[in-house]
Structures are given as C-alpha cells and as structure tokens.
Design brief:
single chain, about 500 residues, alpha/beta, 8-stranded parallel β-barrel, 11 helices, globular, binds alpha-L-arabinofuranose, non-reducing end alpha-L-arabinofuranosidase, glycosidase, hydrolase
C-alpha cells in the first residue's frame, strides 16, 4: 500500500496561531489541588506549586490555558477565591458534586500562569450569574486602579492589572447539565450585553462566545446561528467542544473519529459565514476549539463516586496507545483549518483527562497522549501547507472513504524547517509514504520520529511511566525532491526536515 503527497512552498492554508496549542485547567478533580498545586509536595515552590508538573508544562511550552472552567465556572463566585485564604469559604461545587475550598483563586492562578510562561483565557459565569459579576471581575483583573474592584486587587497584594485579553462568555450554555442552562435566544442576548459591558471596562479584550457542546447536540447548528445573530459584532470567536470515546472495540471506527471533527469544524465555519452574509458584515468570526480530547475511560468510576469530597480523583482517564493516535489526528484536524481555528485547548492539562498525571506526594508522568501534543507544540509552529493527497481508503459505519493516512505539514520559515505529521490508520500493514516537495531544495531529513506499539492498549502509569514513548528510528529518506518513508502499521510519525 502506498500514499503520496505533493507539497508546494507557495500553497499555504494559513499561518498557525500559536494558541492552537492551548490547554485547560478547571477546578475539577485533582487538576488544581494535587495537580498544579500541592504545598506539601517535595517539589513545591514558595507558592505551593509543584515544580515537577511545571517542568513538564514548560517542556510543552503551552501558549494559553483556559480557566477556571468548564462546568465549574457556571456556579463560581469569583469573589470566593480572592483575599485572605483563611477567610475563603468552602462551597458546594454543584457541577462536579465536590467541596471547593477556594484555596486557589484568580490571583494564585495568574501567578502560576506567569511562572508557567502561559497566557490565560478567562471564563465568566453566565450560568448562575451574569453581567454584574462579569463586569466586577474584569475591573478586578484588568483595571489599573482608583476604582472599588481594582483597589481591592491591590489591597489583596496584586498591584499591577493582569490585562487578560481573552474572555469566554460562559461555558457550554446549550447543555441541559449546565448550571443556568439557557436557550440560544436567552444566551445570545445575555452574551451580547455582557460583552458590551465588559468592553466598557476594557476595550482591548476579545471574546469567545459559546457554540455547541459537541457535534451531536440536538440544537447544533441552530444554536450557533441564533447566538451569532445576537452577538456577531461583539465577539471574536465561537467555541467548539468535542470528546471522543472508544466504547465498541471497533478500532477502525475509533480511528476514523477525526473525520467527524473535520466535519464539525467545516460546519461551524459555514454557519459563521452564513451569519456574516446575512448581516452583510466584513467581519470574520474565528473558531476557538477550547475543549478537545479523548474522554471515556473514567466515566464508570465517576458515576460511582461519593459526592462532596475535596479534590477527589475525577475524570482520571488513563490513556492507551490507540488514544494517542486519535489525539494526534484530532490535533491535525485543528491544523488543517488553521485559517479559521485560531485557538484550541487540549482538555485538560493535569490529572483530569490530561497528558500529565501526578500522584499525591509522588511523581508526575507523561501519558501516551502527551507525545503527539508535545510534537505539535514543539515542531508544529509556522505555516500549514495545502497538500494534494492520494491514498487508499476504508469505510466505517459512520464515514465512507476514510484515508488510511492522515497527514499535515507545517513549514517554519523562521527556522527553515519542515515537519510532516502522519498517522497510518492501517491495523495490519505498514505503508509506503511518498512526499514530493516543491520549493524546498537542499532540505534533508533531520529525524523521523515514530510512536508505535504492538499492544494498542498499552498505557503509561506511575509504576511504568515510559511504557509507551516515541523513538527516532523511522526510515524516512530524501532523494532530490522526494521523501520516502515506511509508516509502520498503527503509528504516529513526525518527519522533520531542514
Ligand atoms: O473538560 C471536562 C468538562 O467537559 C468541562 O467542564 C465541560 O465544559 C465539558 O463538558
């Protein structure tokens, strides 16, 4: 079997916005407490942040982190998390049925983000609260001083405003599970008025308005159109969320899920452009795919959990090798539409459906899905090229003509490098992969990284953290303008050239 790709330096999809490699930390499970923050941990710094976790996050070089939720934000009183820690209340956290101690709040998280070298995408509560709490929060965060909330921030010990640029107008407001769930009309109106008021406090901010919680929501499509009718001139991005699971043990079907993600992205772009046309607007709405991942392993355990614990293990999916392939392909779906997908968040970052796991008082380690995300973060910055692909296909019950090879190429003109990401979806055979390059004379292969495993269910655990890791032994070679490589069956490949 053979797949071929033609690339031309001048045929570009778009420059990648670095924020496409964003992630997410929610007050949920052990993401914050015993995830990024554990004051008694041997590696804790002076603020109680785990430095072992910080190291792994720095290795990824995460550009932006969404905070504080997620479903959590729709019941959050941000005031609970500022001021003297000893005065902060324990609250019933209704989204995940736990106790939130509020030991970490806005200021502590902003401090963590600065240390981690990442920007913050802040969400406001449009579930149980609304315009008033949102305008107070942005005054607290972004106003320099001389007003009640900006002076309160100073009183709390944080002199300088944070100037947080990107704000999410609520979270998954289309979902019946959401605290304060709304119809598209109700939410559209509220999001519009909240955006207007927040912009009066700080005109330099940008907004993400809630799209659908996933592609199969019954209101999908209608929701986006209605919400954008209300908010078009006041927002910059619309959100998309998607999690995939492998519940049927049908691997070819699972590996084809990213086709659904491609379709989801194309559909949302079409809806944005429909509203643009209707409004005769010059403005383009971009996409913020601010929750994406595999999520299903922990569902059963979470259902059986006793409520009202403090930072219990929740959504602790332990990922397999096959999940890493799906995550790699989901990331490629984002890159393929880098012209419109400007931000995205792998959900989440630590312990909760996460590439990084920790043991309380113990080690931090990389899950299988860490690696494709890491490769994107490290080698996938620059410009996506428009390929011409010819490749064998297969059919599943969901999709026809799924290509056996999924691939994206990123050119980094600053570094004079080219990176080809590719997954071979074939369960049985390796595949000959040929790439014809135009405009990259004198390039040679730096390395061909491969992630493969005889056991598709192989995982990395606390006891065996390096069970599944990539290696550099791929056989890609270049002769003249043609790269030839074998892509092993079921493999994630990164072919780097310079
Ligand atoms: O990321 C976990 C949860 O998934 C988020 O809180 C919510 O927005 C989504 O349903």
């Amino acid at each position: 079997k053979k797949a071929s790709v033609k690339l031309n330096k001048d045929f570009k999809v778009a420059d990648i916005d670095d924020r496409i490699y964003g992630s997410f930390i929610e007050h949920l499970g052990r993401a914050v407490y015993t995830g990024i923050y554990e004051p008694d941990h041997p590696t804790a710094d002076e603020d109680g942040f785990r430095e072992d976790v910080m190291e792994l996050i720095k290795e990824l070089d995460v550009p932006i982190v969404r905070y504080p939720g997620g479903n959590f934000v729709s019941g959050y009183n941000w005031e609970d998390g500022v001021g003297p820690v000893e005065d902060r209340p324990n609250r019933l956290e209704l989204a995940w049925r736990t106790i939130e101690t509020n030991e970490i709040g806005t200021n502590e998280f902003m401090k963590w983000a600065e240390k981690a070298g990442t920007d913050v995408m802040m969400a406001v509560n449009l579930g149980t609260r609304g315009i008033d709490a949102a305008r107070n929060l942005i005054e607290y965060c972004n106003h320099p001083g001389g007003s009640y909330y900006s002076d309160l921030r100073k009183e709390h010990g944080y002199e300088k405003p944070y100037n947080i640029k990107t704000w999410c107008l609520g979270n998954e407001m289309d979902g019946p599970w959401q605290l304060g769930h709304k119809t598209a009309e109700e939410y559209g109106r509220l999001a519009c008025e909240t955006a207007k008021v927040m912009k009066q406090v700080d005109p330099d901010i940008e907004f993400v308005v809630c799209g659908s919680s996933h592609r199969n929501m019954p209101t999908f499509g209608e929701w986006e159109a209605t919400v954008l009718e209300h908010t078009y001139e006041h927002v910059d991005y619309i959100s998309l969320h998607q999690y995939f699971g492998h519940r049927t043990e049908n691997l070819p079907k699972y590996l084809a899920k990213s086709v659904q993600m491609d379709d989801f992205i194309d559909s949302v772009i079409a809806i944005c452009d429909y509203v643009k046309a209707k409004k005769k607007s010059d403005k383009e709405i971009y996409l913020s795919f601010d929750e994406w991942n595999v999520w299903f392993h922990s569902n059963q355990a979470d259902q059986e959990m006793e409520p009202w614990a403090i930072a219990p293990p929740q959504l602790e999916d332990i990922y397999t090798f096959e999940d890493a392939l799906v995550v790699g392909m989901m990331m490629m779906s984002l890159l393929k539409r880098a012209d419109r997908v400007k931000m995205a968040c792998l959900a989440q970052l630590v312990n909760v459906i996460a590439p990084i796991m920790t043991k309380e008082g113990g080690d931090a380690w990389k899950q299988t899905i860490f690696y494709p995300y890491y490769h994107g973060c490290k080698y996938g910055r620059g410009t996506v090229l428009e390929p011409v692909i010819s490749c064998p296909t297969y059919d599943t019950e969901d999709f026809k003509e799924v290509p056996l090879v999924d691939t994206v190429t990123v050119m980094n003109e600053q570094k004079d490098e080219l990176t080809i990401f590719a997954v071979n979806r074939d369960l049985e055979d390796s595949l000959v992969f040929e790439v014809e390059l135009n405009g990259f004379e004198d390039y040679s292969v730096l390395e061909h990284i491969v992630m493969e495993s005889e056991d598709v269910k192989a995982r990395n655990t606390a006891d065996n953290p390096d069970n599944v890791t990539p290696h550099t032994g791929g056989n890609a070679t270049i002769t003249g303008v043609k790269i030839v490589a074998d892509l092993p069956k079921l493999s994630w490949n990164v072919i780097r050239l310079k």
